[in-house]
From TrEMBL:
<dbReference type="InterPro" id="IPR043472">
    <property type="entry name" value="Macro_dom-like"/>
</dbReference>
<protein>
    <recommendedName>
        <fullName>Macro domain-containing protein</fullName>
    </recommendedName>
</protein>
<feature type="domain" description="Macro">
    <location>
        <begin position="26"/>
        <end position="208"/>
    </location>
</feature>
<dbReference type="InterPro" id="IPR002589">
    <property type="entry name" value="Macro_dom"/>
</dbReference>
<dbReference type="Pfam" id="PF01661">
    <property type="entry name" value="Macro"/>
</dbReference>
<feature type="region of interest" description="Disordered">
    <location>
        <begin position="218"/>
        <end position="269"/>
    </location>
</feature>
Length: 269
């Protein structure tokens, strides 16, 4: 599969223009997010992305596992495991960085998500927020500008996808609002399974609301809008761009290695 460049991953602005993100169930925003041209969304195998950094949902040992971790280690080759062995593991909510070896990205950021704790969901939320924040901090420290996140903790670690997507969007939005956020060109959410596609479709418009003219919020004023010609042109341009986008999996991938990480010694979040 040919690698997908960061520039080819659709931004939220483009997706709103194409009405590929449903804003109908979100509350009408007070104002559009400033970040919609620096946040991307794609349903893809994260190992195919030629971005500066991909973020791996690792476990505390950092020695590989199932799910996305397994896919990343397989695609990167055995040198990744050798480098990971030198890192002495990683705490839940923290992140470490390695080279990417045979992957098309430049670096891999390994973050350890929480195993979802339904008795203490607030604790899980704080750890998950910290995963996103610490990963983005590492990216900035290393001068990496395009960062793609897998849906941390939503697989084997059992974090409900809807809640996890909200935490992810909130944490990324708040990082982009800060001074260090200006140093990033694009933060990309990578979905894989259908449940995460649905979760991000719901969460993104809440935390990154569309500008009025690109959203379903335009309502009654649309017909009398003097900029209608410009909008039609922008839509045509967006559609032309979208036709060049890479195709994404249409069915949920079956991954026989998914159960492997559970068998590892990680027992607490
Ligand atoms: P965790 O243990 O943190 O839950 P998993 O790897 O089990 O980590 O799952 C995290 C997310 O990664 C899930 O949403 C899963 O669907 C997704 N995923 C699995 N394989 C890939 C892949 N190759 N590319 C992108 N996402 C993937």
């Amino acid at each position: 599969m040919a690698p997908i460049a960061a520039a080819d991953i659709p931004t939220l602005n483009l997706l709103y223009k194409l009405k590929k993100l449903d804003t109908s169930s979100s509350p009408s925003p007070k104002r559009a997010s400033d970040h919609n041209d620096r946040v991307g969304l794609i349903r893809a195998d994260i190992t195919s992305l030629a971005v500066d950094a991909i973020v791996n949902a690792a476990n505390k040992s950092l020695l590989g596992g199932g799910g996305v971790d397994g896919a990343i280690h397989r695609a990167a080759g055995p040198q990744l495991l050798s480098e990971c062995r030198t890192l002495n593991g990683c705490e839940t909510g923290s992140s470490k960085i390695t080279d990417a070896y045979n992957l098309p990205c430049k670096k891999v950021i390994h973050t350890v998500g929480p195993i979802y704790d339904e008795i203490r969901p607030e604790r899980s939320k704080a750890s998950l927020q910290s995963c996103y924040k610490s990963s983005l901090e590492l990216a900035v420290q290393h001068g990496l500008k395009t960062v793609a996140f897998s849906a941390i903790s939503t697989g084997i670690y059992g974090y409900p996808s809807g809640e996890a997507a909200m935490v992810a969007c909130e944490a990324v939005a708040s990082f982009l609002d800060g001074d260090d956020g200006k140093k990033l060109d694009k933060v990309i959410f990578v979905t894989f399974e259908e449940k995460d596609v649905r979760a991000y479709n719901q969460a993104l418009p809440r935390f990154f609301p569309p500008a009025a003219e690109t959203s379903a919020y335009q309502g009654m004023n649309a017909e009398s809008d003097p900029d209608e010609g410009d909008q039609a042109e922008a839509k045509a341009e967006a559609e032309a761009k979208a036709n060049q986008l890479p195709s994404v999996p249409t069915t949920d991938p079956a991954d026989p290695s998914r159960t492997q990480k559970k068998q590892k010694q990680d027992t607490e979040a």
